[in-house]
Amino acid sequence: MKKYGLGLILLVFAAVSLGSAEAWKIQLEEAKVHLDQKELDQADAILTDLAKAHSDQWEVDYYLGLTKLAKGDNEAAEKALGQAAELAPTDLSIRVDHAFALLNLNRPEEARKELDLVLSKDQKNARAYYLRGISFILKNDCKSAEPDLDKAKQLDKNYTGMAEYYLGQCALNEGKGVEARKHFDQAIETSPGTVWANKATEASARIPKRGAFFAGGDFFYQYDTNIVPVSSEDALPAEVSHEEDSRGVVWVQAGYRPLIRDAGELGLEYHFYNSWHFEESELNLQLHQAAVNGYYNLDLLGKPARIWGQYMYQYAGLGDSYEYYSTTHRITPVFFVAETDKLFTEIDYQYEIENFDEPGAGDLDRDNQSHQIMAGQHFYLLAGKVDLSVFARYRAVIAEGKDYDQNRYGGRVMGQLLGWNKVSGFVYFDFDYRDYYRSAFDRLDRVYAAGTEVQYQLINHLALFGGVSYSTYESNLDNFDYDRWIYSAGVRATY
What we know:
alpha+beta
């Protein structure tokens, strides 16, 4: 009785007040009661019959449209609400609901025409501004959507959470993660406990965090079958007695991003590498690297593109006390363009200067500079979880001594699993043809290499990884004809 008490009262009131009015009006009031009480099937049945018998009554079409909207039948809702709008062209509420049905059918241009008409007559209609903003978002036009959604928030604070959520989604679709996070944070702050705050929380959690400070490190063990590397133990240098050796390795990175924007970023980084050989401490290596890097996003003939660049300085120390071994300066600009969301082109250029403490004399002077250009295609498969890439490259090495001058031609095929059930990793195959074109021995090398690494995420910021690589050098000089295996396993931390 409680469930139907209000309905009975309304029907009695309607019957008394209408008196001799047509019976269809009483049926309409009954349908409204069912609609208010979420009894959609009952309301639908009554209104469908009324629409057939009274096709000239806008109220019947209007409430039928609202009922169809509530049931999720957007096609039928749009048809009924469109008919109601034709019968009652001055009723702005009908046009707003009709626009809502059109948006549900992903017909934003038609919806916008209705909303433009409403707002030309009622400039304080918050819902119309909100829905017009959504019509722009459906076209990924955040710039046009923002003024309308801001106006809706000003007129009615109840639209704040949903407006900020959709602005965040729009920014995310445009690749603007920083801006999207700001909108999601606003939705959470201004509409706590609502469905929009919950949606914003979930969406924000999926955006990779780009904090100003970052750090990471790999701590691992390596076993190397050819540490120098040479063709056999007979070819080892005098100070080295083991061809095979194990080492412990630390590889640490830390940095600060003074500028983080959706359009670009600037970073300052420091890298530290240290290896400790278990047998041949003379081959212990320590690297200190300082780098400045950044990127800028741009539009190239309607396609998203990015320019990334880095300058790096490296100091290397070798042996028990890590005495000075070499210094390196490296400049690397990289260009990316996305033909589609699954196809990216990458073009790299690298210029490097390397100077050694003991470069050798005459033809054996290794101090050099090099130029490298590389071009490749990335194919993103399985909803972006796999990156299959193919690269070709050329490198010219110009040394002080002619025995180190090289022309190098190569290529690489690589597959990366970017993340699946906490597992990520890569596999690659690489080829390099090296022509020492001014060598006293007319040296030619062909280098084939392959490797793989798998990482498993234990908890946030901590993962285990292991990998193996193999390379074989085919040279016309016996001492440089060799194979090499390297096995690695360790822990990776990131923050």
